[in-house]
Amino acid sequence: MALKFDPPFENQYRKLLSDSALSCSSETTGECELPMIDLSNLWSEDEDRRINCAKEIAKASTEWGFFQVSNHGVSMKVLAEMRREQKRLFRLPFEKKSSSGILNGSYRWGTPTAASLKHFSWSEAFHVPLAKLAEEDCCNEEFNSLREVMEELASSMSDLARTLAGVLAENLGYRGDCFPENCDESTCFLRLNHYPPCPFLPETFGLVPHTDSDFLTILHQDQVGGLQLMKDSKWVAVRPNTDALIVNIGDLFQAWSNDVYRSVEHKVMANAKTERYSVAYFLCPSHDSMIGSCEEASPYKKFTFGEFRKQVQEDVKRNGQKVGLSRFLL
């Protein structure tokens, strides 16, 4: 009996999935635990604890490009409400998700342009500009509770992202309140992710290998593993921790810091039997913001965020994958 998929992944990718020569298999070297940073120390009255916490953040951003945080100030109750709303949203029929305009038509699924499995993501998402949440037609009455919890979560994650960005700027000798500029609710995004079970191939990407095209990303994932990152030229699986948030450096921060902080390639592997959920906040500037660098001498040309996004889109369309910062080297 044929399985029914919603979204209709199998119909779209039947040829790719039946061609074993296109396997995207990649070897992992076991499971890792990301550096854990207790952010309560960042707000401590003890100056030594504050300084040491800031050093831990900078060290992890330099050596890993990823870290996780506890006592982060984002309500676990709000995160639980977000997960409930997320499940309710993704369990809608595909036709309603894809054509009804929910969350301003921000629904995406799979990679319809993929010519091989290495460019193919077995996942669906709502990639929502925060500026759209306040618009009247963003959500109908059925999803008012979804909008409310998204707004509350985005506000908390925005505060956290700006705090961490300020710490990283200060580590490079700049005032924390001068960075990030032009990053607010009108420019940032919230992405709701769902990775359905994929019974076809054990090494199918839930999300293809990539780096993030922002300053900082804050991620909350469920207990289902799947996230992997590149560490010392090898793929390592990240042990899930639902009580912590994951933070990773994006391309813009790597360029701004003159490669002091690392935007690390990462991916999600699909699970054969179990669905996976996550929600991510992306700290982005306005499209006309000049990225530049924190010092005059830089390996990169100056570019705006809009120019960077446009180049990424052109590369994905032409090559099936992102090229990223190397496009902007001098």
TrEMBL record:
It catalyses: gibberellin A1 + 2-oxoglutarate + O2 = gibberellin A8 + succinate + CO2. It is an enzyme of class 1 (oxidoreductase). Pfam families: 2OG-FeII_Oxy (PF03171), DIOX_N (PF14226). Signal peptide: none annotated. The keyword Oxidoreductase applies. GO terms for molecular function: gibberellin 2-beta-dioxygenase activity; metal ion binding. Keywords: Dioxygenase, Iron, Metal-binding, Oxidoreductase. Its EC number is 1.14.11.13. Its cofactor is L-ascorbate. Residues 184-285 form the Fe2OG dioxygenase domain. InterPro entries: DIOX_N (IPR026992), IPNS-like_FE2OG_OXY (IPR044861), IPNS-like_sf (IPR027443), Iron_ascorbate_oxido_reductase (IPR050231), Oxoglu/Fe-dep_dioxygenase_dom (IPR005123). The keyword ATP-binding does not apply. GO terms for biological process: gibberellin metabolic process. It comes from the Eukaryota. SUPFAM superfamilies: Clavaminate synthase-like. Belongs to the iron/ascorbate-dependent oxidoreductase family. GA2OX subfamily. This is gibberellin 2beta-dioxygenase.
